[in-house]
Amino acid sequence: MNRQLQPPAIEPAELVWHDGVPESKRFGDVYFSRDNGLEETRHVFLQHNQLPERFTQIPRGGSFAIAESGFGTGLNFLAAWQAWRHHAPTHAATLHFVSVERFPLTREDLTRALALWPELKVLADELLLHYPPLVRGVHRLVLDGGRVRLTLFFGDINDAWEALDFKADAWFLDGFAPARNPDMWLENTIRLVRAHSRPGTTLATFTSVGRIRRAFLEAGFHMEKTSGYGRKREMLKGVLEASARAEPEQSGSIAIIGAGIAGCTLARNLAERGLPVTLVDSHGPGNGASGNAQGALYVKLGVEFNDQTELALTALTFAQRFYNNWRNQYWHPTGLLQLAHSPQEEGRQAKFLDRNEYPGDILWPVNRDQASKLAGVPTQTGGLWFPGSGWLEPGNLCKALADHPLISTAFGATVSGLQPCNGQWHISMEDGSPIVADRVAICSGHLSPELIPAEGRFRLKAIRGQVSHLPAPAIISPKAVICGNRYLNPTLGEIAVTGATFDLRDNNPLPTIESHNENMQELGSMLPSLFSSTSEKPGGADLDGRVAFRCTTRDYQPVAGPVFDGESASLDGLFLFTGLGSKGLTYAPLLAEYLADQLTGQPACLPANLVRRLETQRLYQTHMAVS
After folding, report:
1. What is the rounded CA–CA span in Å between residue 586 and residue 297?
2. Which residue in 8, 57, 235, 324 could disulfide with 135, CB within 3.0 to 4.6 Å?
3. Is the pLDDT of residue 113 over 80?
4. Which residues pair with 237 in a beta bridge?
């Protein structure tokens, strides 16, 4: 492909097929052995990293991390996953696989390549179901019910190793011969491999080239040549000398305060990794801002593809994969139409399309007729169509997430204080005995700062949002979610939820006629043909609804990470997860995944540039602002 793609798209691999085997047109080499690629992978990578034996030794709630220099067709990953299924312990443990690919295969080419291995079909089908859109950056795929986590970086290898935070237990250094793909074997790459290794980390590679062996020796690996596979007489294997003690993974008890979408996704994530969790809430799951009957899975992608846009995109695609576990229960992937509902938004979307290139499985532009057909409601304009989005039942979803054998609940009691004592955290309850935990994650929305035992204050704000419940007979029910200056969901039973208001200086917890009227006015201007001709348009006094208080930050970016008292002093074992604003349903699954990575000491699902967007230090203020 000669045309330079605009961000965030990335150039796919260009393949030629000879006797059914894919070859790289760019590099002139096969992706796997013509003799038997799967057996070659088992010989080179599984056997020489002693993976079957090492898998059996992982403790309960522990993990094993494999890193790879080129994902290619995913054959190495599938072979490792198959071995994990055969040799992993019966208790909960996680296999992490971190891989990089500068020229990823399209889904169609990947499907064709993996069809060559019938014995891997079940695993290949699951990989293909979760395979991400071809956009640059990091993609975390949660597979096999959470027992396998694949972190795919689409981009340059050195960019990947600089951006990602992980320690590998084993390396698959495959690829093309160094002479054909020299950039993969630069000195800097080997330096970064060393930086991402721990004492005792092993490596294996097809190559036996002397300069590669010498470079790894200089980096601290003990290297030796050994028998290769088939026509390749020799290969290299190595181990990083155990000159220092490896840091153990995080363990101990964990308590999560707040059972909204943030707290429930985090609790479920940790439980599925084998860690017991106590979920604390004064009411129960999904009773606060996450308690609406319906919520849209939606982000507004920026005109410029910067870190903020990348975080939103990563969250959206991860959430679409995550919620698929509850498809047609609490997740309804109807598609979502982002209307160009005003001249300003029409101009913004035009700039967006001019400066960016997104794959069609993320979004594509539609004209007015196409928009009306997709939405099932006559629209005044076109817009952007997101085929993988839809709507959720947040309250019911939170209840389902909290239902896990490793999640203990403490509902119906209010937290009155949080204090460190003898290396643990003591959670005081207004009614009942205190809860003691080694680590605590505060997921309490705009109430979170009240629980942080630190001087100064953490700058978070609550924004009132009222939704309105439209009677189903009063409207033409849309087939998909429609977003503009308001959102509208397809009907659920007898209602369709629309809203929400954005009330900065209103702390009224009860629905008001004025807010209902505001929702109806904005919805009517966005979709004037929405209301049924056989029913009178409802007024504010005729509607039911609900008020919730969204929590947001001054920069409208979420917060997830360890809490710091001031600029650098960490409050050991205390974490904060809040500030999701009106996009909590979209951000919560990804940020729960990231925070669970941190709490367990496992490979991080986010690169350094996106982690910086989430840091808690930016919220801290030592003195009250002068008004």
Report:
1. 6
2. 8
3. yes
4. 204, 224
**Residues 6+ away with beta carbon under 8 Å from 625:** none
- Taking a C-beta distance cutoff of 8 angstroms, is the pair 570, 488 a contact? no
**Residue 569: strand, helix, or coil:** strand
In sequence order, the β-bridge partners of residue 149 are 96, 142
Length of the chain: 627
Peptide linkage before 538 cis (omega within 30 of 0): no
Residue 571 identity (one-letter amino acid): L
457 to 444, 445, 611: CA distances (angstroms)? 15, 15, 22
Say if residues 43 and 206 touch (Cβ distance below 8 Å): no
CA distance between the termini of the chain: 57
pLDDT for residue 624 is more than 50 = no
How many other C-beta atoms can be found within 10 angstroms of the C-beta atom of residue 271? 24
CB neighbour burial string for 36-48, b if at least 16 within 10 angstroms, e if fewer: ebbebbbbbbbbb
Rounded Cα–Cα distance for residues 213 and 102 (Å): 24
- The amino acid at residue 480 is A
Quote the CA–CA distance of 121 and 450 in Å, as a whole number. 52
Instruction: For residue 602, give the 3-state DSSP assignment.
Output: coil
Which tokens is 56 given? Answer: 């059996």
Q: How far is 392 from 326, CA to CA, in rounded Å?
A: 9
Number of helices (H), then strands (E), in the chain:
16, 33
Q: Going from the N-terminus, what domains does the chain have, and what CATH number goes with each? A: 15-240 (3.40.50.150), 254-288+395-460+556-621 (3.50.50.60), 336-387+462-552 (3.30.9.10)
- DSSP, res 598: H
Contacts of 313 (CB under 8 A, 6+ apart): 8, 135, 137, 299, 301, 362
Distance CA 106, CA 12 (A): 6
Contact 300, 352 (CB under 8 A): no
Computed on alpha carbons and rounded to an integer, the radius of gyration of the chain in Å comes to 26
Are 180 and 99 in contact, with CB atoms under 8 Å apart? no
- Mean pLDDT, to the nearest integer, of 325-343? 96
Task: Collapse the DSSP code of 576 into the 3-class scheme (helix H, G, I; strand E, B; otherwise coil) and give the result.
Answer: strand
As beta bridge partners, residue 468 has 498, 545
User: 197-231 burial by CB neighbour count: b if 16+ within 10 A, else e?
Assistant: beeebbbbbbbebeebbebbeebebebeeeebbee
Instruction: Answer for the pair 259, 281: CB distance below 8 angstroms, yes or no.
Output: yes
Point out the least confidently predicted range of 16-30, 521-535, 611-625: 611-625
Burial class (CB in 10 A: 0-12, 13-18, 19+), 512: middle
Return d(Cα 21, Cα 410) in angstroms, integer.
Answer: 56
Encode pLDDT of 385-423 as tens digits: 999 999 999 999 999 999 999 999 999 989 999 999 888
Which DSSP state fits 605?
S
Query: Are the C-beta atoms of residues 94 and 146 closer than 8 Å to each other?
Result: yes
SS3 526: helix
Residue in the block written with tokens 């793909």: 181
Is 72:99 a contact under the CB 8 Å cutoff? no
Q: Which long-range contacts (CB under 8 A, 24 or more apart) does 22-25 make?
A: 22/73, 22/109, 22/112, 22/113, 24/103, 24/176
Report pTM. 0.95
DSSP 45-81: IIITTTHHHHHTTPPTT-EEEEEES--TTSHHHHHHH
